[in-house]
Amino acid sequence: PCPLALLLALGAAATALAEPLRFIDCGSIDGSIQEVNVTPCPTQPCLLHKGTSYSINVTFASKIESQGSKARVYGEMLHVDIPFPIPEPDGCKSGIQCPIQKGHFYSYLNKLPVKSEYPSIKLIVKWELVDDQDQMLFCWKIPVQITS
């Protein structure tokens, strides 16, 4: 797809036009991931430009009931998870209608800000969403490259 189409895809109904990413499921126990979208990310590994914020949209089905959910994001380098702060870790403030109900589908929406001071490196982004019992509703990984 052309870059202009991808920029236009950032509009309101954008995520429907985004290409689903190939991701690794890293332990979704209490949910099952249907689709992961990172916008803009036309090719993999995703090139994450410093000073830019990326839209994350994860469609998943819950296998459990939970009052709430919390996101944890890591940059994985040499099999070490480095916590990566996100502006809103509360899943109930990120597109998920809480309480979470068993058998329902949810669209989790968040932002991934890439700060200017981050080093230019290749790494794995690991994104977890845990329920009230600290079990994983979803966990996915994608390769990224942080670039200027």
From TrEMBL:
It holds the Pfam family E1_DerP2_DerF2. Residues 23-144 form the MD-2-related lipid-recognition domain. GO terms for molecular function: cholesterol binding. It comes from the Eukaryota. Its main location: secreted. It is found in: Secreted. Residues 1-18 form the signal peptide. InterPro entries: Ig_E-set, ML_dom, ML_Npc2-like, NPC2-like. GO terms for biological process: cholesterol efflux; intracellular cholesterol transport. The keyword Mitochondrion does not apply. One of its GO terms (cellular component) is extracellular region. Coiled coil: none annotated. Belongs to the NPC2 family. This is NPC intracellular cholesterol transporter 2. The gene is Npc2.
